[in-house]
Amino acid sequence: xxSFVYHQPKTVADAVRLLxxxxxxxIAGGQDLLGAMKDGLxxxxxxVNLKSLPGLREIRxxxxxxxIGALVTLxxxxxxxxxxxxxxxxxxxxxxxxxxxxxxxxxxxxxxxxRPRCWYFRxxxxxxxxxxxxxxxxxxxxxxxxxIISPGxxxxxxxxxxxxxxxxxxxxxxxxxxxGTRTVALKDFFQMPDKNLKGENILQxxxxxxxxxxxxxxxxxxxxxxKVREKDSFDWALVAAAVVLQIQGGVCRRAxxxxxxxxxxxxxxxxxxKSLVGKTVNVQTAAAAGSAAVAKATPLEMNAYKVPMAEAxxxxxxxxxxxxxx
Length: 326
Ligand SMILES: Cc1cc2nc3c(=O)[nH]c(=O)nc-3n(C[C@H](O)[C@H](O)[C@H](O)COP(=O)(O)OP(=O)(O)OC[C@H]3O[C@@H](n4cnc5c(N)ncnc54)[C@H](O)[C@@H]3O)c2cc1C
Prior knowledge:
Layout: E1 5-7, H1 12-19, E2 24-27, H2 33-38, E3 46-49, E4 59-62, E5 65-69, H3 74-79, H4 81-86, H5 88-96, H6 100-105, H7 108-113, H8 119-122, H9 137-140, H10 162-168, E6 172-177, E7 180-185, H11 186-189, E8 208-215, E9 221-228, E10 239-248, E11 251-260, E12 267-268, H12 270-276, H13 283-293, H14 306-322
Parallel strand pairs: 1-3, 2-3
Antiparallel strand pairs: 4-5, 5-8, 6-7, 6-8, 9-10, 10-11, 11-12
The structure holds flavin-adenine dinucleotide.
Flavin-adenine dinucleotide (FAD) is lined by residues 25-33, 35, 50, 70, 74, 97-98, 102, 106-107, 109-111, 113-115, 159-161, 203, 208-209, 234-236.
């Protein structure tokens, strides 16, 4: 690994000032960044440790929902009793990440901002589009793990498990910079490659996530996160779905269906949600939601298997969230 200068700021203001300098990267748990630095994918001259910042490690319950500091670990999210009870999909998503050791160190901010696992992007010797090259090697290469829903020109899938769950709950992120703070809906945080080829989100140099706010779910809300992976010990999702349903009198009043592993950003299917609202959840309506979720899929040469897989994952998640045995 190339040597670098390590900074331990004591305030958010100092951290964002340092991060607005060239050749500087933020590190939280380091579970994504350190591996990428060891592999030579990134070689920053300066690394700014966010873990030295105060006030970003708490989960607070308010009358309007949850405030989760960016440095809260995935284990803390997975084990939090209120998150497990009222935001089940988020607890399950956090619990599905990697291994206990990685979850003990990895943070929610790092989980949202981790870089894609595309093997062309991760290979320091491959100069792909995302790294300023002239082509996406996945478009015609080995694309078995890539996107089935992408406007192009890049076909990564977003790697975060927590992002689909947070998006399904309508979370917002607070972003700090030298200019102050701003709060944006998570759905506006992530960006498709036709809008932002080199990054996956709206963060600019000198900006960090400080907090995630999750609104209190209305009465009758139930949720789950279903993830299919190649290796059950630890792995990123081939396909995953976060489903949040509000069910009253046996009828679905509100629904949110967000898929992971299928697109360059967590993919919210308005069609799947719409297909459920006003209906009783049963095997037929859950299957219809699965079909609606993949209606826009245009698989690449080697990943058509993800289409029926996504259909089945959404169906399974809808039934599980509603507590219906299929
Ligand atoms: C073997 C292995 C398996 C994994 N499996 C999964 C998996 O199944 N699912 C999954 O979702 N992830 C997985 N991960 C990815 C990742 O390590 C974890 O998700 C973890 O949450 C990353 O958090 P971190 O704090 O360690 O991030 P870091 O490595 O510290 O940072 C990751 C990136 O985010 C940026 N960053 C960190 N915090 C902030 C912030 N507050 N504001 C702005 N930018 C920030 C950093 O600059 C860096 O670019 C896996 C990693 C490994 C090594």
